[in-house]
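Let's do one together. I've listed all components of the complex below, 555 residues spread over three lines.
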Amino acid sequence: MNSYTTILQKIQKTTVLFALFFTSFSLANTKEETKSGDLKTEIKEYIAHHLQDAYDFSLFSYTNDKGEHVYIGAPLPIILWDNGLKVFSSSKFHHGESVAEVDGNYYAIYHNKIYKTDANGTISYDDEHHPTNAKPLDFSITKSVVSMMIVVLIMFLLFRNLAQSYQKNGGIATGVGRFFEPIVLYVRDDIARPNIGEKKYKKYMSFLLTVFFFIWFLNILGLTPLGVNVTGNIAVTFGLALLTFLITNLTGTKDYWLHIFDPLGSSMAWYAKVPLYIILIPIEVLGVFIKPFSLLIRLYANMQAGHIVLMSLIGLMFIFKSWLGSPLSFGLAFAISLIEVLVALLQAYIFTMLSALYFGFAAEEHEHH
Amino acid sequence: MEIPVMVGAGLVVIGVGMGIGRIGGSAMEAIARQPEAYGKIQTAMLIAAALIEGIGFAALFAV
Amino acid sequence: MRLFFLWFTLLFIFIGAMHFTALSLMDISPNTVFFWECYLGNYFLTLLLLFALLRAFERLSHSIAWIYLLASGLKFALFFLLLLPLFKADESVINVERFSFFVPYFSGLILETGALINKLNKL
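Okay, and this is what the predicted structure of the assembly comes out as:
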């Protein structure tokens, strides 16, 4: 009886969540119809807004009967360094609609960046329409940072519990461990071992597993109606690729560097190598930087493109206002969502795989004769 | 947007599509011929496809 | 290794002499294109880098190439910061000025790379 009620409660909670999710869309729908003047630009702006980071964690918004914007969500802390540390809540900005006053200084959000302004929020522009206002150093806890913290917390608790459950049960996986054990083993046996080699793969396993689950969880979180787009943020993928770059080059063996600076080896006399090396060495050195760069662009572009396609298909619903358009848009969006679930896993796999491949280059050691 | 840039990006995407299609087709044939090497072929296919895909994204971002 | 430093100095003087002859054939005074600053600066910085590489070879033998990459990038950045304002002082950067920087820089770079390959092969 007890378990039955808990199940019921769970179902109730899920239903409430679903109801919230669908009302958000229906509310958005009524809002679009009221000012259908330039629907396409509005959808474009909405997509662009979704792709960017935000200073508050808002789930959805609507216009009430009095014509006011009502936002459902939570404000996040804003941390600025502007002649001293300034910490305040992002609710002071009222979602970018008003100027925030902190200790006699005024700040305003313009195009998703915080600028220092006067009391009226005036922003002056140069010839190319770039703001000339002073920009304080911004260390704010934004929506992406919160999502990353959540994922880090989930990963920490999940894998800590898994490790403990292995100790308790004498090395046998239980519960959710039965789902994660094959994945961890896959990363070890099919990604790390063949690419890095039996001798050295253990050194890189912690990074590979962490980066795999971190990217995978963030990608999956990006598909939920929470509307976070963390791995589609170029700064995040840059950070991940920078780690791969540093690990590759700091653990590089002699043979790795010889392959870059002396690719032809002892097969030629030095005077024959000089004209070749003037072309070869710059290419090899550039390759060192291009490899992680391609990693960062691939992850960023894939996630960004996925989000744009998905949101555009949902936006089609508001453009074709007919009985044919909405089911078509829904069907396409559903199919693309399923593909995106696959892409979320695939991109995490590709990132880990290519990182392992680069570590393999760095760790290789030739037999010396 | 300038039309030549868009046409160029389209051409690149056609090339990328053909490339990935060929990789996928060849991988299918290889798996049909040697089903026991499924895992290895799939890995190699994914790496090659990912590398080509990068060029496609570069073209799309140029637009 | 002293032999290497000797060779390095001789080669640098040789390239510098060639460059100087070319400049005087074109009737350009070396002072207007910052010839001496570029050559002396490059020479001493390259010496410093080679010395650092040798020290690194003795102690942190595996990061030698990494140190080399960082150091030559740093050298370029230093020149960019120090020399570009000098070049830009007369409102324009002419090609002769560019050559007076890039010829010693690249000869230094080639020599450094040669030393690095030599050391890496002996690891």
